[in-house]
Every structure is written in structure tokens, then in C-alpha cells.
Design a protein that fits this description.
With about 190 residues, the protein is of the alpha+beta class. It has 2 domains: about 70 residues, no CATH class; about 100 residues, no CATH class. The protein has 7 helices and 4 strands, in the order H-H-E-E-E-E-H-H-H-H-H. It is extended. The protein starts with a helix and ends with a helix.
């Protein structure tokens, strides 16, 4: 899977260098090893001038069920978008729109104050102390599929009574962090 992701990042910028009739053949060649009944699937899309210039899928959506993948298949993005969000925040900081050392509550005032300033940098580095919202939802006995919007996720995060660790510290590094995590219940 890591190979596929790396290929995509190198492939996407180069697609515009090829003519529309050559690019699909080159992309087919790259993904040929994954285009069979026993391979996890991958979808590739290239958007040019607001429309799909290329839209193809390879392999299967589910190896267990033998379901084919199509260019209209829906994917759960999970953590894939984190790197793009982080890059956008870093670019905004470089352009002076914000500082990585800003309090996250400046942008998300719904978050409670936990006795510490939590910076954008700490959120980006996963050292904010915020608990995982999916784990919090599971622990509350609710189904994570009930989280259908960003507002739903924000409500779960804002309801936590404490942090897993002191912001800026890695988990498990200090006894204070452990005490915070064990004494504060959602």
C-alpha cells in the first residue's frame, strides 16, 4: 500500500506532462500489477479545468467479497487527508495568516480550556493531549457511524473532561501525563 501511495504522489504531478491519449496508457502500465481479481484496489483521478481528464480503477474493492472497484466507488479517507491539512496550515503560517504557536482555541473557540494552552503546532505533531475521537465515541457506547459531520466530531472532542498528556509532551513520558489520563474520564 505504501508503494501505491508513493507512486500516486510521483505520478500525479507528472500526468500533466503527457498528452491525454498517452497518460492513461502510462498509468495503466504503472497499475497493471494491481489490476487483477486478487489485488486490493486503487482508483486514480486526474482533474483538469474542473473536469475529470482521467478516471480509472484497478483491482478489487473487497478481496473478501470479490467486489470490483469502480471509479465511482466511495472511499473512507481516514487519516489520508491529515498531510494535506497539515501542509495547508504550514503554508498559511509561512504566508503570515497564522502562527503555529497560536492557541488552537483562537480558531476553535468551542474547545474547553484544560489548564494549558494547546497550540496548532502541538495539534499538528499529535502532542496536544486530545484523546482520539473515535475511541471516545466507542467508549461512550455509541456507533462511530453516527458521526456524520465535523460538528459531531467537534462535540465529542469538546466533551472530553481532560487530556491524555500535558500538551507538548509525548504520551507516557511523564507521571503527570499518566495521572491526567487516568484521573480524567470522558
Amino acid at each position: 500500500m505504501r508503494t501505491i501511495i508513493v507512486l500516486i504522489f510521483f505520478l500525479v504531478p507528472t500526468v500533466s506532462l503527457f498528452s491525454p491519449d498517452v497518460a492513461p496508457r502510462k498509468i495503466d502500465k504503472i497499475f497493471a500489477p494491481y489490476n487483477n481479481k486478487h489485488s486490493p484496489g486503487c482508483s486514480v483521478g486526474v482533474i483538469r479545468d474542473g473536469s475529470f481528464a482521467l478516471r480509472k480503477s484497478y483491482g478489487e474493492a473487497s478481496l473478501e467479497l470479490g467486489a470490483s472497484l469502480s471509479s465511482y466507488s466511495v472511499f473512507y479517507m481516514a487519516s489520508v487527508s491529515k498531510q494535506f491539512t497539515a501542509a495547508g496550515i504550514v503554508l498559511a503560517a509561512e504566508q503570515g495568516f497564522l502562527s503555529l504557536d497560536d492557541d488552537v482555541r483562537k480558531y476553535i473557540p468551542e474547545l474547553p480550556y484544560y489548564g494549558y494552552t494547546i497550540t496548532l503546532r502541538q495539534v499538528l505533531h499529535h502532542t496536544s493531549g486530545f484523546r482520539d475521537f473515535l475511541a471516545l465515541t466507542d467508549l461512550s457506547g455509541r456507533d462511530t457511524s453516527a458521526l456524520s459531520s465535523s460538528d459531531d466530531v467537534l462535540k465529542v472532542i469538546a466533551r472530553q473532561k481532560g487530556l491524555n498528556n500535558v500538551p507538548g509532551e509525548e504520551r507516557g513520558r511523564s507521571t503527570r501525563s499518566s495521572a491526567l489520563a487516568s484521573s480524567q474520564v470522558v
